[in-house]
Specification:
The chain is of the alpha/beta class. It has a domain of 311 residues: ABC transporter transmembrane region fold. The strands form 3 sheets. It has a 6-stranded mixed sheet, with helices on both faces. A 4-stranded antiparallel sheet has the order 2-1-4-5, with helices on one face. Strand 1 and strand 2 form a beta hairpin. Helix 7 packs parallel to helix 10. The longest helix is centred in the middle third of the chain and has 53 residues. The chain is elongated, with a radius of gyration of 35 Å. The relative contact order is 0.08.
Length: 591
């Protein structure tokens, strides 16, 4: 199943998203209860205002006394003032509560993403995850900040209006309700269509974000191959689909609202027609007719809002399902229930009959066993796909093995605290990732325990200080996204400095010098020799010249260790290693 092309990652949530969302409101139940109380009071005010004016009309007809109008104006003004205060307070409470819940959800989602295995990120586009953490979480804000409370308010208002109208004049009320069936039918149809349009819009937005994330990161490749126009056309197509989705969404609302408004006007016309006749026959008073006219106008508004709010709620629930699907994903590297924290990781590594497959089926490592003693320098070589890099990933427990056992200092790595395990391993990779910030910030990598002096010393150790001190701001020089303003060699030197600053017990180098020119490689070789003393060092390299002085070289082939020994011992075996060596040293003789 191709998760890159299908939205399957969000399609398997089977829980009740609404109940789960409501659970986030528990810490704020007092604020929510106050808001619901305000709803009841505000609804009572909404019902009271037309009645106040209608009764005043009847009272003034019987006795034309301006004191009646003065009294009504004062009461009406007090009611408006109290409504204003309650509405402001309610809005403030809802927004504050909503934003706190959104913060909680976003932090929980990001923390969970950090706990997911590397396999999850291998299969899931970054743009999709960015959409989940930003757009989808933000879609919940409207629900928490108003939808739920307004839903409650509109339901209470409809019930209150219907009850008061029936108590005032059952006949006129029932005539007013004649248009409820078509209104209900239109509302049901609207909800279904709106829900579908919301889903399409969310999918289109996710698709566009995924496209942008991938193509902006790969802009250099696009330019190298001259695919700007093709990618522009692809972006235009996706943007047009999103435009059409938003347009359909707008069109649905543009049709629904006027329809409900027309029906409310028809109901008002019917009430005024029948009510006017009753007024002339002294069946009801003018004040009562005024109250009914006001109530009819107010009666259809919450019905329209309910339909729209239900649709918005559906959109929020759709986003919530996508979020909860990620939160429920169990492709994580679990922490041991009571993780072992070693006094110090020395660096003895043992693979004991290890079998590993990324997909649990196709094994890339098959019954691999070896021991690396503390302070030893061991290199893994072999053709692409032989399993070299997989060994490095397993040592840091970025994936879990299917069979066998991996130990560090005699303890199964599944029992060791992940934080301690990974902090003891310094990884230097071919593809260096630098974060936006400063050079010092990238070397320190948010560890405030690392002093400025330690940062400088680490840079000097790997000779990175040579180019850093030539920069205008030195260690405070800004670093753009991915360090694009630095050369590959400079980025690699910074990664060396970063590793040294964290003082690991185990060094892991995955083609760490592949992108460094010969001059730069000579600069770091001396520092590496000093650095590797007393530390367990594991190297993966295609250039055999860089690992000839390793204490042990292990030759991988199709997931197994086929040969092991020193450089000279392996050459004497006249096997796979010798063929690889001769191919690199004298390629013309092997062609």
């Amino acid at each position: 199943m191709n998760t890159r092309n299908n939205d399957t990652i969000e399609s398997h949530y089977r829980g009740n998203a609404l109940l789960r969302l409501l659970a986030y409101m528990k810490p704020y139940r007092l604020s929510v209860a106050v808001c619901l109380l305000f709803v009841l009071i505000l609804t009572a005010f909404d019902l009271y205002r037309p009645k106040l004016v209608g009764n005043a009309i009847d009272a003034f007809r019987e006795k034309a006394d301006y004191s009646i109008l003065t009294d009504v104006c004062i009461r009406y003004g007090i009611v408006l003032l109290l409504s204003f205060i309650l509405n402001i307070t309610q809005a403030w409470l809802l927004q504050k509560t909503g934003q706190r819940i959104i913060l909680t959800v976003r932090l929980e989602l990001y923390r969970h993403l950090q706990s997911l295995s590397s396999r999850y990120f291998d299969l899931t586009p970054v743009g999709k995850l960015v959409t989940r953490v930003t757009n989808d979480v933000e879609a919940l804000d409207e629900m928490y900040s108003g939808i739920l409370v307004r839903l409650f308010r509109n339901v209470i208002k409809i019930i209150g209006l219907g009850t008061v109208m029936l108590l005032m004049n059952a006949r006129l009320a029932l005539i007013s309700f004649l248009l409820l069936p078509p209104v209900t039918l239109i509302t049901i149809v609207f909800r279904k269509i709106a829900r579908a349009t919301y889903r399409v819009t969310r999918s289109r937005l996710t698709d566009l974000n995924t496209f942008l994330s991938e193509n902006l990161s790969g802009m250099r490749i696009i330019r190298i191959f001259g695919r700007e126009q093709r990618k522009y056309e692809e972006f235009e197509g996706k943007s047009t689909k999103l435009f059409r989705a938003f347009y359909r969404e707008m069109l649905v609302f543009a049709i629904f609202r006027p329809l409900i408004y027309v029906l409310s006007i028809l109901a008002l016309v019917v009430v005024l027609g029948v009510g006017s006749k009753d007024v002339l026959q002294d069946v009801i008073s003018i004040g009562t007719l005024f109250i009914f006219a006001q109530y009819i106008q107010s009666f259809f508004d919450p019905i329209q809002e309910l339909a729209e709010q239900f649709s918005t709620l559906q959109s929020s629930l759709a986003s919530a399902e996508k979020i909860f699907t990620i939160l429920d994903d169990e492709t994580i590297i679990p922490e041991a229930e009571n993780p072992i924290v070693l006094p110090k990781i020395v660096g003895r590594i043992e693979f004991d009959h290890v079998w590993f497959a990324y997909d649990n089926e196709n094994y890339v490592l098959r019954d691999v066993s070896f021991v690396i003693e503390p302070g030893q320098r061991v290199a893994f070589v072999g053709a692409t796909g032989a399993g070299k890099s997989s060994i490095l990933n397993l040592i840091g427990r970025y994936y879990d093995i299917q069979k066998g056992r991996i130990t560090i200092d005699g303890v199964d790595i599944r029992s060791i605290s992940k934080e301690q395990l990974r902090s003891a391993i310094g990884q230097m990779q071919q593809d260096v990732f630098l974060f936006q910030g400063t050079i010092a910030g990238n070397i320190r990598l948010y560890d405030e325990n690392i002093t400025d002096e330690q940062v400088r010393k680490a840079a000097e150790y790997v000779n990175a200080s040579h180019f850093i001190e030539r920069l205008q701001k030195g260690y405070d020089e800004p670093v753009s996204e991915r360090g694009a303003t630095f050369s590959a060699g400079e980025r690699q030197l910074l990664s060396f400095a970063r590793t040294l600053a964290h003082d690991p017990s185990i060094l892991v180098m995955d083609e760490a010098t592949a992108n460094i020119d010969t001059e730069t490689e000579l600069l770091i070789q001396e520092a590496l020799d000093k650095l590797m003393k007393g530390r367990t060092t594991i190297m993966v390299a295609h250039r055999l010249s860089t690992i000839q002085h390793a204490d042990c070289i292990m030759v991988m082939h199709k997931g197994k260790i086929r040969e092991r020994g020193t450089h000279q011992e392996l050459l004497a075996l006249d096997g796979i290693y010798k063929k690889l060596y001769e191919l690199q040293i004298h390629p013309e003789t092997t062609s």
